[in-house]
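Students often ask why we bother encoding 3D structure as a string. The short answer is that it lets us treat folding as translation between two languages. Here is a chain of 83 residues written in the first language.
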Amino acid sequence: MKLVYFAWLKAKVGHAEEEVAPPAEVETVAALMDWLSARGAGYAEALADRATIRVAVNQEYAKPGDRVKPGDEVAFFPPVTGG
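And here it is in the second language, the structure alphabet:
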């Protein structure tokens, strides 16, 4: 699974992207975020306020209950504003 981080999320986790292999029980966006938060302080801080984080799975907006699987690209980013 490829994870991509944007803006301040990238700064907090310390890199723009990474390849991970979560355990089999990580089947949803919410479970992935829980698993990532347990990986270290930077992840926990970045993902602490989930109401302010948007997620896309394979370039489609995703909700906490949406499924994730090996081979997916999951992107984490702050809310986007237009102007």
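Translate back mentally: The chain has a mean pLDDT of 95. Keep this in mind for the problem set.
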